[in-house]
Each structure stands twice: as C-alpha cells, then as structure tokens.
Please model this.
Amino acid sequence: MKTAITQEDLLLAMEGIPDDLLERSEGEQTASRGVRRRRAALRRRYILPVAAALCLLLLAGGLRTLRMGSTGTDGGMVAFEEAAAEPKEAAAEEAPEEVSAAGAAENTMDSADTAGDFGSIDYAAADKEEETAAVEAAGAGETEESAAEKLKEAVRKLREAVRRLVRKAAGRNADE
Amino acid sequence: MEDALIIDLYWQRQERAIEETDRKYGSYCMKVADNILHDRLDAEECVSDTWLRAWNSMPPERPSLLRAFLARITRNLSLDRWRSAHAAKRGQGEVVHVLLDELAECIADTEHVEDLVSAGELSAAVGRFVRSLPERDGDLFTRRYFFAESIPEIAARSHLSENNVTVILSRARRRLRTHLEKEGFIQ
Model:
C-alpha cells in the first residue's frame, strides 16, 4: 500500500520531539566558546581599562572635593595660588621702582626745561639716571622671567600633587 | 505554584487548576500560538482551547513536564486552526507556509513509500532524529520547527548570527532527509 508523506505531515510530526528536548530548547542558550573568548578579549582590552580609568578619575575628584570640604584648602590649589600670587607681588614691588626711576629721569628733564636755563642742564647726570633706569628695567625683566619660572615650578608641583592623590586613591581602591 | 500541585488540582477536578495554569503558562502558550497564527484573537482562542483540552486530558494523564505538555497541545490546536482557515487558499509569506517550504528540502510533496506510515511512527522518527543532533543544533531545530520561532528570534536567543542559524538549520534539514531515508520513510 502506498501512502504519501506531505510536508504538513512532517511539520505535524515535530510533535514527536521529546519533552526533555522541548524543555532544554526553551532555556537561554549560552554563547559558543569562540564568541565567549572574543567577548572576554574585548572586555580585557577596552572595556575594563576604560572603566577603571573612569572610576579612578571619579574617585580622585571625589577625594579632592572631600578634602576641600573638610579643610577648606587644597594642597594643589594652595601651591597654585601661592605661585600665582608671587609674580603679582613681585610686579607690585618692582613696578614702583621702575616708575620712580623713569620718573626721576623725566623730572630731571622737566626741571631743566622749566628752569629755562639750558646752559645749566646737567646732561651727565641725566644720562646716568637714564642708564640706572635702563638697568633697573632690565632687572625687572629678569624678575618677570623668574616669576614665570616660579609659576612653571608651581604648576609642576600641582601636577605632582594631583598624581600623588590619584596614586593614593588607586592604592586605597586596590586595598578595599 | 509548583507544576505537581497544579496537576493535582486537575486530578481533584478543581477549576482553580485552570486559573493557576493560566497564571503560570498563559503568556507562554500565547507565544506558542502567536508564533504560528500571527493573530492575537486566534491565539487567545487557542490558549482557551488548550485549557479545556488539558482539563479533559488530566486525568487520566499526569504529564512529567507540564510546560511541554501544554506547548504540545497549543501547537496542535494552532496548526489545526491554521489548516482550517487556509484549507482553500495558500497565501504567501505566512509562517507555516515558510516552514512548509523549508521542509520541502526534506520531503517532496508527492513522496511515496511502500508501507503505510502512521503519524505516530513518523513522529517517533523525528524525535529520534532530533535527539541524534548535537545539543545546539537540536535546540535550534526545535525552536524553528516545533515552536515556529523566527530566525532573528532564534539568533538572538542563541547568540548566533542569523546567517549562522540559517546554515545550521539547512544542514539539519539535509540530515533529516538522510535519516528519513535510512528509516525507510522516503526513498
């Protein structure tokens, strides 16, 4: 006797799949070994380092804020403020001298002019005073350079302080 | 509620059994029906019919895996409903049509065998075949041809690409054909 199996019969025959296989197929499948390995490599190479760096940054920021909140001062900020204040003071100290030197020279000239006695102008004295003013001005320029160096030094110290802070935070994080 | 307790309620003929089954497996059976019918209302009716059939089956039956038992009933009812709705016309693009077209690789529509083949024998052969497959391939095959899940759905669940799933299923269909030939269902 001949009988035909249709595709529909075959589809219906899938009912013959045992219960345990139906149950098994219902579960969430795990990724294959290759996929798992690729994902782990991705995590190791990119995700974990980026996440760790972000955590450190956040932690350092938090610690810094805490420190500022508890003492009202910050080591790095203090160093920076001191360094920033120094050149201003130096400039404030140097500027009057500069002005006074230049002013003295001008005054001498003015006094000579106003005197109306050109013959009595002491050119030698004026020249000397001008030279002195120039030397002092050069000195002021040197002071500016040293202030810039101080500022650089302060910035370097500030960077070191931040690095130490981050290292400490990282160490504490690792200990925890 | 534990499956064993729900089955006990069926055996005690308590209507609460249906409520508990609906609470625990309602959405699951709905998904099985909807995979095949793609029609919310039809699927809901199938699920209601599933509870009725489960009520009539227990007792005497005491399924060891209630979920699989209910899935089987829902699937059969859904396929019956689909057949009665599409007896006259065969549309294109519907899930069952797609599955039938895929299964054409295993068996031609006019395949003849010398001996009378009962549906039970064919089902048993399919069961043996799926068991012989590697675990992953068997799961993919079951998800596709028993639960009628879509390829993207299967791919997402099994962490494979859609192309990979298609290739695995294609190989499984070829192996099914060989298996059916070996068992004498087709020549």
Observations:
- Chain B touches chain A through 55 residues (CB under 8 Å).
- The radius of gyration of chain B is 18 Å.
- Residues 96-182 of chain B form a domain with the Arc Repressor Mutant, subunit A fold (CATH 1.10.10.10).
